[in-house]
Write a structure and sequence with these properties.
This protein has 96 residues and is mostly helical. It has 3 helices and no strands.
Amino acid sequence: MNDSEVLSKEQRILRVLRKVLANIVKDATPAPGQPHPLQESTIHDIRDLFGLIAEREAELADQAGLDRNEKPYYADEPPSSKVVTLHRPGRDKKLD
């Protein structure tokens, strides 16, 4: 099952909007020491737009009952925790 089958139309629109906006920001970001081509108000509006997209994506995830903190993992990735078995020490025979 691919993403387009799982996500609603609004979720797909928000995902594409976020990606396109991020690409615009990457393309417009100047080299270090160079002046920024965007006005400060435009930069603030872009930050607000990223915030609104994130809020709506969170609302849609809540409505769908999805956990927003899930992270992808690979099947061959080692687990982050390990089970350790503890054994009780046997009674010391010298004390008996």
